[in-house]
Specification:
The structure is a homodimer.
Chain A: H1 2-26, E1 36-42, H2 61-69, E2 71-73, E3 76-77, H3 83-92, H4 96-99, H5 124-130, E4 134-139, E5 158-161, E6 196-198, E7 201-204, H6 212-226, E8 232-237, H7 258-280, E9 287-293, H8 320-323, E10 327-330, E11 338-340, E12 344-345, H9 347-356, H10 373-378, E13 386-391, E14 394-400, E15 403-409, E16 420-429, H11 445-461
Parallel strand pairs in A: 1-8, 1-9, 2-11, 3-12, 4-5, 4-8
Antiparallel strand pairs in A: 2-10, 5-6, 6-7, 9-10, 13-14, 14-15, 15-16
Helix pairs in contact in A: 3-9, 6-7
């Protein structure tokens, strides 16, 4: 069965290789065969929140099917453990600390932040646009809400969405106080004065979040139906299941996991609509869809947050639960169906998609992403050998192969979690011990030495971008 | 898609219904169309130990495929949280406390135990044999090692396996001392003088456990290949991944999860061989295969035990991690592919398979199993509405619908775990809060009342069987 699969896949690889060759020869203008890319990015979705990642109560039939037909990545990491830096990493292929989007002062951007992703950064959208792609951003941005920082000024032809987190612009007073400790039905979308933008114009404020997930998915379907021969890149970043939680009437009360489950099931439903649209439009054979999350579950919010399954801790931390995210790749006639336990990162999407689209990787700056093409197309071993875990602008931990060293550790924001500097770093084999329960530093000084040297080398060469999160108005 | 599925399934249901009718009319002698049943029963496999149940390091491609083609049950329970009572429950469809196979003195049967499953109990094998089935037991028995209690005296035509746990008959002395705290490669199969039986004869002692998993799976394939028109029931109960852990050379070092992962991957490989044999023999269309576990992971053994994923605690406890087990049903042209989050229990296999085989359910005793036929064939709601959680012969907790009340709670055997009697029982919504983190007893007195009344009713009617585990020689 596996052999059959692989022979099938080598064949598909040949096909793709052929048009990559053709497009190389005839240049980008004639390149209409490059694969389309869709990134579906959930917000604060935990490692254990999908059926196929072990959730017993949340039903995600479309994502489960996506995993059986494509690739399920079990050791795939977000670029950071909170929103803004994670998104900067995904779109630039660079550790957020390089672009100044990871800060020692502020975790993320706020409605009164002065800056955003610098114009000097090159986004995946800009790269693909240059390669002739139609590009669209839908949903949460959180890389600067001022016009100059919005998606349409970072390589996206169009934008529809809320420019930052859905719990921002909070209306003060009784209606709002301690909302996340109150029953969900007492939390109204009107309590959050977040704007909904089309392009750079506010079209709705406060954005009606009750059906925002549905509207984002429908917008994606509309975009897909508008496509012609030109290859496209769609970046769909849901604002949910980040708190406050909202589901449309069709999904409210549907899940046994409560409102959080309703929200995830509505996102899953949207994924189904998107895959169906691709099939009906005849684009499924030449489109790669990625589903992943920006960071782990926001655990201090108890059952209004998700679960990291067997992984330790969640959002905001550099434990596995904070940065290892449930990730699926789908592309019926392109990908080698498999479960991939090798390393991958959202940083790699930049390099991988640029490679597949046959556009050049910038050489004037350090790109941290690696090319996963051969893993996706042929199930070959991943070229990614290490992961750096930053909290803000500070490196807390690093993974090399199966081993992860914690130099500093700390609990989640808003939880008891003192910062601990480890004189002897903690060492875990996170393939063997995914829950990070058994420190083996004493038994493996040589591995600790290897990781420490890699980190030293990384730090000594690191050029930090000017902190873009610090200035407020 | 779902609708299509269901119309397909109603059709399959019709077919099955037809031959159930035919067999009813023409009686059991002519019954050659009843489905074959295979139960594959792992030992101490945790809820989070399979790929499709969220394990990031253990690769189980065959079980994953089984779940996509069949039914994945996310709220399925073992009859008890340790070996002997769990197995008694599965084979009799009765709570082990009724047959005396759950005791207040001993957790399980030992090599010096005097008794076993009483002859007065009716096993699923006896029921199916009466309906004209060929029956075979392979692997761990643990319902009495004396001849009168062995499988061949409880309805099985044949038996091949180790009659109790693979860590029993321990050779004393240095070689053995504290073996589970020592490196796995220092633990030899010779340290455990367990017998391997064929029928009632010892054919090997100590049983070579290095390849026991492979030998059990191969024995199952041989049995399948010997079958003719007569329907059959195969009970394959692996001795592993119960400690001590052994894998054959082909699998040793294969998994990133260490020896525990190697063992689970070898079991998965065996499942693949069994499904292939069914297909090659043309039996897949009329065979139902169940894969499940006898209880949760044995956590005090650290990484030599498995993981319960997001569930709380493990083997020996009445927390979800102790009794909720990863369960798959497979039957390509019979079952309605689905993820089932309704309640099910190993107790139900007795009633369900007797119903499908069109043989009568005993009326002279209480049977605790319910008929899951309509859930399996049509994806209808499960008729099981409650679960009783016994520790030994004592009821610790009960679940009704989504709610579970703990009257007594305690940690795993061999772990710090004081017994706590709860004056006000703990109450959890285990659909919403599978990790049993948030006690909601104060908020829902009416639900607590309902569960308490059910338990009172259950206890007041309960007739306890004579303790079969207490007497030793």
């Amino acid at each position: 069965m596996r052999n059959y699969l692989f022979s099938m896949l080598s064949f598909k690889f040949l096909i793709l290789a052929c048009f990559l060759f053709v497009t190389t020869v005839y240049g980008q203008e004639e390149d209409n065969n490059s694969p389309n890319f869709i990134i579906i990015f959930a917000d604060d979705l935990g490692y254990g929140d999908l059926g196929v990642f072990g959730n017993p109560s949340i039903k995600t039939p479309h994502l489960d099917k996506m995993s059986f037909e494509g690739q399920k990545w079990t050791n795939f990491y977000a670029a950071a453990s909170v929103c803004t830096p994670s998104r900067a990493g995904l779109l630039t292929g660079r550790l957020p600390v390089r672009s100044g989007m990871a800060s020692s002062t502020n975790r993320v951007l706020f409605p009164n932040s002065k800056n955003g992703l610098p114009a000097s950064e090159i986004t995946l959208a800009e790269q693909l646009k240059e390669a002739g792609y139609t590009t669209a951003a839908i949903g949460k941005w959180h890389l600067g809400h001022k016009e100059e920082f919005l998606p349409t000024n970072h390589g996206f032809d169009t934008y529809f969405g809320i420019p930052y987190s859905n719990d921002m612009d909070r209306l003060q007073g009784e209606a709002y106080k301690g909302y996340w400790k109150r029953p969900n039905d007492s939390i109204k979308t009107e309590h959050f004065n977040v704007p909904l933008l089309r392009g750079t114009e506010i079209v709705e404020r406060p954005a009606n979040q009750n059906n925002i997930t549905k509207r984002y998915s429908d917008e994606a379907v509309t975009f897909i139906n508008q496509q012609d021969e030109t290859p496209f890149f769609l970046y769909l970043a849901h604002n949910l299941p980040h708190i406050p939680l909202f589901a449309s009437e069709e999904f409210k009360g549907k899940s046994k996991r409560g409102l959080y489950g309703d929200v995830v099931e509505e996102i899953d439903n949207g994924v189904g609509k998107i895959l169906d649209a691709l099939k009906e439009k005849g684009l499924a054979e030449n489109t790669i869809v990625v589903f992943t999350s920006d960071n782990g579950p926001w655990l201090p919010f108890k059952n209004n947050g998700g679960t990291a399954g067997l992984l330790r801790a969640g959002k905001g931390t550099t434990w596995e639960g904070g940065m290892r995210v449930p990730t699926l790749f789908w592309g019926p006639s392109i990908l080698a169906p498999a479960v991939i336990s090798d390393l991958g990162s959202t940083l790699d999407l930049f390099t991988t998609f640029c490679t597949m689209a046959n556009t050049n990787i910038p050489t004037d700056r350090i790109i941290d992403g690696v090319d996963l093409t051969d893993v996706l197309l042929e199930g070959k071993p991943s070229p990614r050998k290490s992961v750096f875990y930053y909290r803000g602008s500070e490196l807390f931990a690093a993974r090399v192969g199966d081993y992860k060293a914690h130099f500093i550790s700390q609990g989640a924001y808003g939880e008891l979690g003192e910062r601990v500097q480890h004189d002897l770093p903690l060492l875990f084999n996170v393939a063997f011990d995914a829950s990070e329960r058994f420190d083996i530093a004493d038994a493996h000084p040589e591995i600790l030495k290897e990781i420490t040297e890699l980190v030293f080398k990384h730090k000594s060469k690191l050029v930090r971008g000017k902190d873009q999160l610090v200035e407020r108005e």
